Amino acid sequence: MHKTITVTLLASLLMGASAMAEEVNVYSSRHYDTDDAFFAAFTDATGIAVNRIEDDADVLIERIRSEGELGAADVFITVDVGRIARADEAGIFQPLEIEAVEEKVAENLRTDDWTAFSTRARLIFIDKADVSDPPQTYADLADPKYKGMVCTRSSSNVYMQSLLASIIVNEGEDAARAWAEGVMANLARDPEGGDTDQLRGIVSGECDIALANHYYFARGLAGEVSGLTEGIDGIGIVWPNQETNGTHVNISAIGVTKNAPNPENARKLVKFTLTPEAQHLLASGNNEYPVVEGIEPSEAAVTMGSFTADTVPLGDVAAASTAAQKIYNEVGYK
Asked: Most buried of 77, 133, 160, 192 (most Cβ within 10 A)?
């Protein structure tokens, strides 16, 4: 079930929500407690109350679509370009037309209808004790010398779909199909679990090599993550494709809905995501990377090192997501 969260100033709590002259309605599939601080900061800075509904992305997209012209949502927030693209394809957005977005966000991280406000990198992790010649690229994961060593999530996971979609855009469908077949042949186990489980697999010895977003590792550095933190010193980090097109990055993203009842407040919220305060709260809260230059990521993310990111337009990656899932299905990747 979804949950509704209202973030207001202390004054609004005393006066009652009805006394608030301005509001913005947020439908979000980001389930991070630290986002509470971001919404509170927005209200504090603007006086605009935030009414928030959280649920899975697909549930929220369908809810916004079905509400039509009577819709209550002003903005939709989600993670991964595949999900924001599904929202765009459902026709729920209106053009952003926000100068601050065009000035502050790299062109490959936005479209006319949505923009990233933080990024996440998809990395290769290794067992330092067992892997003396680690893969340096995503393509290397399909090398037969790593047979029985690799762990990944299921192909139905949007992170896996977006990675393969980026390979399609960069190298073509034939190369993407060969990669999927090669990685599948090298799996240490059937795909299962989330990104943290792939890292736990290295600690337990079940996996020698794993794919995961960087911030799952950063969480293990920054705090106690059961089954990971106690063995994290034995895990090595590989920033893939540093000599070619760069490491695949994905996003947390926001868009203004087509039937927003408070469109100007919605745009104020989008612009606020790009302020230094918001960039720090949104990115560091989940150990992601800010999209605005000059903002430092969290200490744990900094500890992991610097890297060159792939600059492929994520709108193109999103468009290739369906082809990516088709390839996974055709090769039998679970």
From this structure: 77
Residue for token digits 């989008």?
270
Query: Angle at CA 289, nearest 5°, toward 288 and 291?
Result: 135
CB 290 within 8 A of CB 302: no
Going 48 to 49 to 51 to 52, the CA torsion angle's sign is positive
**CA-only gyration radius of the chain, Å:** 20
Residue 330, C-beta contacts closer than 8 angstroms, at least 6 positions apart: 177
Contact, 120 vs 157, CB < 8 A? no
Which amino acid is it at 288?
E
Question: What is the DSSP track for 192-213?
Answer: -S-HHHHHHHHHHTS-SEEEEE
Distances (CA, A) of 278 to 102, 266, 288: 17, 15, 13
- φ/ψ (deg, to 5) at 203: -60, -40
Q: Residues with Cβ < 8 Å from 183, sequence gap 6 or more?
A: 141, 142, 150, 152, 333
Contact 238, 126 (CB under 8 A): yes
Q: What is the pLDDT of residues 294-331, one digit of tens each?
A: 999 999 999 999 999 999 999 999 999 999 999 999 99
Domains and CATH numbers, the chain: 3-119+250-297 (3.40.190.10), 120-247+313-331 (3.40.190.10)
Q: How far apart are CA 3 and CA 31, in angstroms?
A: 10
d(CA 148, CA 197): 17
**What torsion, rounded to 10 degrees, do the Cα atoms 240, 245, 247, 252 define?**
-160
Angle between helices 321-331 and 158-171 (to 10 degrees): 100
Length of the chain equals: 334
Q: Which residues of 195-228 are buried (b: 16+ CB within 10 A; e: fewer)?
A: bbbbbbbbbeeebbbbbbbbbbbbbbbbeebeeb
Closest listed residue to residue 119, CA positions, set 303, 255, 321, 279: 279
